[in-house]
């Protein structure tokens, strides 16, 4: 295959002929006098050649490695299509051999009890990811924490589901993703008390240092659930920033504080929302909102 390069590029020898590239030999030469400028041009196309019209993916790279897979994504995969390298169907004898190899390949991947544990835990983690709508970075962090816990022998005698749920909660806290114990308890169908116990165990045994939850991160979530306007959200954010500067937010539940700030913003902007509406959206009681509301009112002279 011969193709002409940019017509503006002229031969450095004769100055008249245009440069031509031969894709088969890799030569770049003048079309008029035949002067060879370069004899090795890098191949820009794919490095494989297709002999069939099936159009299957010829990518040689598999899925990226991930801590949230029991084998970290480094396992062997035998192609389920019963065809050889040239695309021809396998013979009956070879087909049964390959089928047997596939069976042993899948069995060998979960041979160790640790692998079985990981497979069970990470399938649960995958389910929680979809239910709680958290990002991949949170899932990777949760998988890392769980692997450390298994390494330390913390899983023995405890529920795998409770421990993976607590690892996910720890990852949410670490990445400042606003998910409460109640949310994770409802998604995993495990008592909040059990998750909290496992979470405290992880903190103690793995020496995890968790950042304090920022109430501002909870505002958009509560506001979207309660159907509040953008103006109210901005006002609530300003109220919380002022409260943080005056050090009145220390030691308070971030969800309750964010809900109270939103309620104050609703009252200020004249938005018609009751304490119950905001409390239900935040997952706290009306009493909590009233108490936090009083504190904000006194501190900010509202």
Automatic annotation (TrEMBL):
InterPro entries: Cyclin-like_dom, Cyclin-like_sf, TFIIB, TFIIB_arc, TFIIB_CS, TFIIB_cyclin, Znf_TFIIB
GO terms, molecular function: DNA-binding transcription factor activity; TBP-class protein binding; translation initiation factor activity; zinc ion binding
Example GO biological process: transcription preinitiation complex assembly
Keyword match Transcription regulation: yes
Pfam families, per database record: TFIIB, Zn_Ribbon_TF
Sequence repeats, residue ranges: 123-206
Domain of life: Archaea
UniProt domain TFIIB-type: residue ranges: 7-38
GO annotation, cellular component aspect: transcription preinitiation complex
Binding site residues for Zn(2+): 11, 14, 30, 33
Assigned keywords, A-Z: Initiation factor, Metal-binding, Protein biosynthesis, Repeat, Transcription, Transcription regulation, Zinc, Zinc-finger
Classification via SMART domains: CYCLIN
PROSITE patterns assigned: TFIIB, ZF_TFIIB
HAMAP family (alphabetical): TF2B_arch
Biological role: Stabilizes TBP binding to an archaeal box-A promoter. Also responsible for recruiting RNA polymerase II to the pre-initiation complex (DNA-TBP-TFIIB).
Protein family membership: Belongs to the TFIIB family.
PANTHER family xrefs: TRANSCRIPTION INITIATION FACTOR IIB (PTHR11618:SF13), TRANSCRIPTION INITIATION FACTOR IIB-RELATED (PTHR11618)
Name under which the protein is recorded: Transcription initiation factor IIB
